[in-house]
Amino acid sequence: MLVADDGFPVSSGGWIRVLARADLSNPERDELRAVLPGAVPGGQSVTGVGGVLLAAHLLSELDFSAVPVESAVRPVLAAFAARVTGLDGRKLGPAGPGVGERWLDRLETVLAEGRFDPKEVLAYLEKESAGLGLYDEVRPFMQDPRLASEAGEVVPPGRLVMDRPSGANAMWSGRVPESTPVASGEALGWVLAWRAFGPSGTGAVRSHGGRSSKSCKAGPARSLMRWFPRGRNLFESLVLSVPPPDAWPSGPGEDLAPWETEQLPDPLAPAAPCGVVSLLTGRSAHAVLLAPGAGGEQTVGCRIAWGTSVDLPAAVDPYVIDRSSGGPARAKHWRAVWRDLDALLLKERTGEKVTTRRPRVFDTVKDLPVDVRRALRVRALGWDQDKQDKNSAWVLAETPPVLELVEECSPDGASAVSAARLSAEKAASLLGKSLARVWHLLNPGRRSDDREGFVGPGIALFMERAETEFWRVVADPAGQAPQFRRLALGVFDEVTVGVRSATVRGMAAVQLARGPLAGVPEQRAHTKGKSRKTSEKRVVAS
User: Fold this and answer.
1) What's the pLDDT tens digit per position in 12-62?
2) What's the CA gap between 35 and 121, in Å, rounded?
3) Which residues pair with 304 in a beta bridge?
4) Coil, helix or strand for 23?
5) Which of 343, 304, 314, 333 is nearest to 178 (CA)?
6) Which residues is 291 bridged to in the sheet?
């Protein structure tokens, strides 16, 4: 078993929260206790990278309480998984034609083994141990030691923990004073979160290479929704989180993680990723350096500054839904995950204003063993925020096992799911127009923005109820057609009941706006030349 010391090695220090499988056999329970002393089936443990990899087949999932930390940790663990399994491409022969098939063969072999090879895990962690110390003076894990001389004084640890109040910022989710030290394991998670989700705007003044500035770029995952495979155990989840070769960038240089090289990144000219490991671990717009307390058990301060003076070289995050315009799909706390399910099942979702491209990590679902594919879920993680320093809400959701409906395996099923989603969106749009029409008839001359307090809750209520109907369609794509229009009509009647019963004018407005939603042709005035606008004027004047 790996043992921690005062330097808090990432391989063995407690920083990754995991849940043990509840269905462990007696031999598996003994194995779990040997790797993670004190762990029990279905219980939570805290361990390091070594413990995660050695026990991954005995674990259900990660169990972080902070969504941005989990979203930032998963790609890093996928990089470790790629290294110890050979899915990083190093042992697949030359790049080019045939590498994709060789990679799939290796993936099949790894999945059949059902666990990470302990010898490979321990050998890799031993080889890279020099770069796996959280507080190492020369190569602190995922940090930039140059900040000690380039970025001024240490600031309180509240600056590091992104959901704490810090400086003049308003409290977001916690009341912990910004000066309270942070346990080293928690601090490490937030280092990774800063690298992924750090805001644009001002940070500490950093002087490097003749440039002195406090202006930061936004982190590469800031405000984005990420989608990760969730298998039957953590081993499958991590292996399937390694994107296939078609998703690997091919920049010049050797494909290395920050902990594998002594060369620090150039903040004036950041290098493009050149393989799967550098793609998953090497992209950051911020530089962070922790200040340890005595014994290495706590972080008592930090420095956070700009990590690049220019935009990061272009690269596609393999966990995001990409769009033909507007960049990758953003996290929205009000947008239910099911509304993007067909964007995962279809390689490209067309027919709308924007074409979406599913996350590249799901491109090989069709090639997975049937038992793995049938059990595969999707875990969605995001942070609703703007590019600067405004944070709204974390987004966390998980789908049922639905990836057997990817279009390559079930084109009819994927089409049915997409049609159901589009039907729900059209019903919601029609509901919104009908509610807006009621509001305008009763509030002539007022600003359109004011209507959202009436229209918005109605659409939100519809989307909540439509989700149940949507999952019914997913469970039986060939069954009864979805009833979204009926649901929208019920919501319209519920939302407008007060208006309808208050005045004759309100009753007339509701009746006029309800017709199109109910599929009833609108009645025209008998007098020649009078139209719908004439009818609406009568409602307003009545």
Assistant:
1) 999 999 999 999 999 999 999 999 999 999 999 999 999 999 999 999 999
2) 13
3) 288
4) coil
5) 304
6) 301
Distance between CA atoms of 166 and 301, rounded to whole angstroms? 12
How many of the other CB atoms lie within 10 Å of CB of 448?
A: 11
- Rounded Cα distance between 2 and 441, Å, is 71
Residue 216 sits at φ, ψ, to 5 deg, of: -115, 145
Give the burial class of 26: count Cβ atoms within 10 A of its Cβ; 0-12 exposed, 13-18 middle, 19 or more buried. Answer: exposed
Q: At 304, phi and psi to the nearest 5? A: -135, 125
Closest CA to 461 of 437, 435, 439: 435
d(C-alpha 146, C-alpha 32), whole Å:
40
Which of 192, 160, 193 lies closest to 178, judged by CA? 160
Close Cβ partners of 402 (under 8 Å, ≥ 6 residues apart): 341, 345, 377, 378, 417, 474
Backbone angles phi, psi at 343, to 5 degrees: -75, -15
- Residue 90 burial (CB count, 10 A): 12
Specify whether the CB–CB gap between 147 and 29 falls below 8 A.
Answer: no
The Cα–Cα gap between 420 and 482 comes to 7
Cβ proximity of 466 and 484 under 8 Å:
yes
Please state the φ and ψ torsions of residue 408, each to the nearest 5 degrees.
-70, -25
- Whether the CB-CB separation of 142 and 265 falls below 8 Å is answered with no
Which two structure tokens, joined as six digits, stand for 368? 């997975």
Predicted pLDDT at 526: 45
Cβ-contact 246, 287 below 8 angstroms: no
**Residue partners of 498: CB distance under 8 A and separation at least 6:** none
Using 50, 70 and 90 to split pLDDT, how confident is the model at 538? low
Hey, what amino acid is at 227? W
Q: Return the amino acid letter for 492.
A: F
**Boundaries of every domain in the chain:** 16-306, 414-542
What pTM did the predictor assign?
0.91
Closest CA to 492 of 471, 519, 524: 519
- Report the alpha-carbon distance of residue 264 to residue 245 in Å, rounded: 26
Distance, CA of 476 to CA of 311 (rounded, Å): 46
Which CA distances in Å does 216 have to 198, 297, 311, 313? 9, 29, 10, 15
And the tokens for 449? Answer: 């923005």
